[in-house]
Design a protein that fits this description.
alpha+beta, 5-stranded parallel sheet, 4-stranded antiparallel sheet, 21% strand
């Protein structure tokens, strides 16, 4: 079987399929695994823990692989869950730690082969089945004839090439670019952010900086020892622009603005007067893109109503988080300690029998996707898609795969190994 995309969903899918006994090829377009967690340096895993304003400890939304991955990441990162406003729990991490855990998870399985620097160029079908996938891997053409395909690209690339229906959600959410400053003054932790916001607002009002520069926020849990992660949220794109054109424009603008912000903060804020630009994420954090038209569609009411399903294969617990015209996101919460379930058919494209999608390209309404897109939920849907695809490839009933997934979600923690 073939898994396209080595982000959170793809790594989880590869682990699930490999452990189920399938032979797996995992394709990743970068030279490292992790997807947005590493390439966009997101900095926090959301969707692992139930929202809770009272508890002093984070409560995992599910066991099984989700719990295993979170424990391994904590060990690799030397971090622990932290609680933000409104009882939201997140797990901070540096990008290299996420990549190390992703590498470890797939390298433990001899039946999983990772192909880096690989992009899908073409998919050929016979009736409702994807039969052949053409790939460029470090400029070498490769051809695969997989029994099943799992699309974890975040853009439904494989499903679209195979003729599956898709919808474009690029305009649903704005992207952000993450960067890190070092050599910040110790005073930044107490009053630096207030100073930064004040000076940015003044500069925008005087026309010294474009308005987008005021959309600067901190990455939770990323500060300490003179370092601080920031994310610059951009402005909405044009719905009528092709996705490639809009993303190219966003990427170029974001890097220009980061340079301007760095110079401005050094010159106008005491807490950043010695700051250096330590890193800029290689890629924008794209929050919404193309997604499949599935046999079922996760709706806003499913999320807000905390609906469960007999075919539920993943749990979502993050609120709807819409990033639009405002500096901060529009948050829509459901009950504390609540979660909804994502039905299997949200991962199954209409008209394709041996293709599944996981992560940000599953079938969902825009509002529902603003909840289901987060890394924790992507890990869960990836694990589910990999399990189902493996069962299909091994001629085992899909119903048995669903039963297995639901049992695993109840397991406290499995296969947790101490990282070297």
């Amino acid at each position: 079987m073939l898994i396209v995309g080595g982000g959170a969903a793809g790594v989880a899918a590869a682990a699930a399929a490999g452990r189920a006994g399938a032979r797996v090829i995992l394709l990743e377009r970068y030279g490292f695994l992790g997807g947005a967690a590493t390439a966009a340096q997101v900095g926090t895993v959301c969707g692992l823990y139930l929202r809770d304003t009272a508890s002093t400890e984070a409560t995992p939304v599910a066991g099984g692989f989700l719990r295993e991955f979170s424990v391994r990441l904590q060990r690799a990162a030397g971090s622990a869950p932290i609680r933000l406003k409104e009882g939201l729990w997140v797990l901070p991490f540096p990008a290299p730690a996420f990549a190390r855990v992703a590498d470890a998870v797939v390298s433990e399985l001899e039946n999983v082969t990772v192909v880096l620097h690989a992009t899908v160029a073409e998919a050929q079908t016979e009736g409702p089945r994807a039969m052949q996938v053409r790939v460029l891997a470090w400029n070498d053409p490769l051809v695969f004839c997989p029994g099943t395909v799992v699309d974890c690209t975040g853009e439904a690339t494989a499903a679209a090439l195979a003729g599956g229906g898709v919808e474009n959600g690029i305009a649903d959410q704005i992207p952000a670019l993450v960067f890190t400053l070092q050599n910040l003054d110790p005073s930044f932790a107490e009053c630096g952010l207030v100073e930064v916001r004040r000076e940015l607002r003044r500069a925008v009002e005087l026309g010294r900086l474009p308005a987008v520069c005021e959309r600067l926020l901190l990455v939770p849990g990323s500060g300490g020892e003179g370092y601080q992660g920031f994310k610059l949220n951009l402005i909405p794109g044009r719905p009528d622009s092709p996705a490639w054109q809009q993303v190219s424009a966003w990427e170029q603008e974001a890097r220009q603005r980061v340079e301007e912000l760095h110079r401005f903060l050094v010159e106008h804020t005491a807490s950043c007067r010695n700051a250096r630009l330590a890193s800029v994420a290689p890629q924008l954090g794209i929050r919404s893109g193309r997604r499949i038209q599935g046999r079922a569609r996760l709706s806003d009411d499913d999320v807000l109503g905390l609906r469960k399903s007999a075919l539920g294969i993943a749990r979502g617990c993050w609120p709807m988080e819409r990033w639009g015209n405002s500096v901060r996101p529009e948050m829509t919460y459901f009950d504390e300690r609540g979660y909804y379930e994502i039905p299997l058919d949200c991962l199954r494209p209409v008209g394709l029998e041996n293709v599944l999608a996981a992560g940000r390209c599953l079938s969902a309404a825009a509002g529902a996707m603003s909840s289901a897109r987060v890394i924790g939920t992507a890990l869960a849907t990836g694990w589910a898609a990999g399990t189902v695809a493996a069962f299909q490839a091994l001629d085992r009933p899909v119903e048995s795969a669903v039963e297995t997934i639901r049992e695993q979600m109840e397991v406290e923690c499995e296969n947790v190994k101490r990282e070297a």
